[in-house]
Each structure stands twice: as C-alpha cells, then as structure tokens.
Amino acid sequence: MQKIYGFVAEFNPFHNGHKIFIDEIKQKFHPDVLIAVMSGNYVQRGDFAVLDKWTRSQIAVENGVDLVVELPFAYAVQPAELFAKGAIFLLDQLEVNNLVFGSESDLDFESLAFKMLQMDTSFQQDYQKNTASNLNEFYKKAGINILDQPNQLLGINYVQQILKNKYQIKTNVVLRQDQSYSATKIRQNLRDNNSVADLVPDSILNALKNDKIIMWDDLYPFLKYRILSETTDSLHNTYQMVEGLENKLKKEISNNNFESFLDAIKSKRYTRARLRRLLMYTLVNVKNEEISEVFEEPYLRVLAFNKVGQEYLSQLKKRTEFITKVGKNERQELSLELKADSIIKLINNREQNFGKIPFMEGKN
C-alpha cells in the first residue's frame, strides 16, 4: 500500500520553519506522496493571505510538497472545528492514509480527542464570556493549553474529525523544536518594513518584491461602502450575523480605519478573530446558503504539483473528481470562491481563476 501523507497549511507566508517541517516528514516517514491542503486567498482568522494562492502553492511544491489542493473559502475562514472538518474531509477524498501536524508539545492527541468527544455533551456556554474563553476553560479540563500553544487546538480538532467520521487516517505529530519561525512575527515584520531575509526562503523574498501585501485597511473603504449602503435587514442576512450585530456595525462604521472600527465593535462576547471573520463575510457578501452549498458538496481544486503529484492525480482521477481549471461547468461549484477572489484581483490586478491552471514543477 502506498504511503500517502498529508497535512494542512496556510503558508502565510511560507517560511523556513515550513521547510524544516516538510524535510522532517520526508526523512522520518518516507512518504510516497506528500499532499498539502492549503487555504486559498483568505485565512482562518479573517485576514488576507500575504501572497496569493498560486504563488504560495508554487513555492510549496518547489520546497518539497508533491501536490497542493485548495481549502475552500467556506472552510478556510472558520473557527478551528469547521476549518479542520473541511481540511480532513479533503484529505480523505485524496485517499491520504497518514496525517501529519506540528505541535508545541508531545501529547497523546488520539486519547485527548476521544476524551473531548465524550465531554462534548457537557460543554456549557457562559454568555458573560466570549467563545474563545469558554473553549479555553473547556479544553483546560482535559489538560490542553489552546491559548499559549494554538497548534494543540488544531491538532485535537483534526483527530476529532478522523474519529467522528471513521476516516482511515493515522495521525503523526512533528514537534516544533524551533519556535523562532512564526508566521505572525513575519507578517508583522513585513507590515513594519523590517527584513525577513533570515526567516523565509529566497523565493518568498522574490515574490514579495512583485506583490503588494494586502491588508484590511486596503479593503476598509469597500467594507465601509457595503455596511453604509446595505439596509440592516440585508446585513442581517450575512453569514454569522447574529444578535443584532448589524446594528453595531452600522453604528460604528464612521471610524477612520479598520483596527479602530474593530476595537469599537469588540465586546466580551466576541473575540477579534470572530469579528474579523464576520467582517470578511460582510465584505464578500457571504450568505448562509452559499456556505451550505459548499458544505453539502465540497470540491477538490488542484493548485500545484510536481511529477510525483501528477502521477498520483492520474491514479486518483479514476475514483475521485477534482478541478484543474474553471470552465462553464465549474462556475456554479466555485461561485463563492470566484466572488471572494474577485476582491483580491481588485488589489493585486492578477486573475485568480479564469484561465488559470495548476503550477507544474518543471513545465510552467
């Protein structure tokens, strides 16, 4: 049986720690194929990827990944449980039999995930606190630190999805020995115009010379227009717009920049990450039914591969459907992705879908 290994990533941006992670998987496990499910142009905490999905997937393949598949917007911009649900479903569709993820500490993730599933019915929401605080206290009961070691949270959720759905996927943990590589730190350095040369491969530096880093303030005028021009009833129909938040958005939208607007709408009930996701849904005008459609029929979209990945896709296509280009038939299936990506094109002036084909190492 082939050893098909997979992992989940944002590569926002790809850094030397990712390269170490990929090299360690290859040295330790010797996979026949290594697959990454990667967030597209939007990432989990309601932000824009530093580089677009085509650039990031190409760099991943050039640094040892055999095949990169896109995690759809509907799953990518979500809290950990739904993020993991979509990613693990796609890995199962890709017939991955081994999942690898990084962790700050060596835990028995399978036992902990099983324990969390059993405790699931006992979770009680304290409405005086935000969801993150509630979850942190819930996880603390099982001895899991999700605040200081966030990869633990994703790891637990990945394993929970495997157990819930009885996927035939084994789990493997690679310890993060070097904590100096932080995508958050790199993004902050980029925003402050500080050098990141010692933290990322040269290919990232070259890409950054040609790409504008998209930040919320670039899109804030568009968000402002959406909130000002829509009625409260229309805003209420936005995905995850609950408990009258549309009124709060209308009230505070006069703020001059995105961060001050975020500060104004933040409360004990909602974390910044939760609100950033909501504002992303508002910007893209995401409706409940658009998310539901993707949840009902998740799709596999190929972004990049090398020769090994190409050969594996040739095997897989006999059993599994996947998308390699956007034609007439794919427009409906990818409608939410096309809408979201059109906003990225407004800023970087690069086509994200039509006429795009996967990067193949050695050919493009």
From TrEMBL:
InterPro entries: Rossmann-like_a/b/a_fold, tRNA(Met)_cyd_acetate_ligase. Its EC number is 6.3.4.-. It catalyses: cytidine(34) in elongator tRNA(Met) + acetate + ATP = N(4)-acetylcytidine(34) in elongator tRNA(Met) + AMP + diphosphate. Keywords: ATP-binding, Cytoplasm, Ligase, Nucleotide-binding, RNA-binding, tRNA processing, tRNA-binding. ATP binds at residues 8-21, 102, 151, 176. It is found in: Cytoplasm. It is an enzyme of class 6 (ligase). Pfam families: HIGH_NTase1. The keyword Transcription regulation does not apply. Its main location: cytoplasm. NCBIfam families: PRK13670.1. HAMAP family: TmcAL. Catalyzes the formation of N(4)-acetylcytidine (ac(4)C) at the wobble position of elongator tRNA(Met), using acetate and ATP as substrates. First activates an acetate ion to form acetyladenylate (Ac-AMP) and then transfers the acetyl group to tRNA to form ac(4)C34. Belongs to the TmcAL family. This is tRNA(Met) cytidine acetate ligase. The gene is tmcAL.
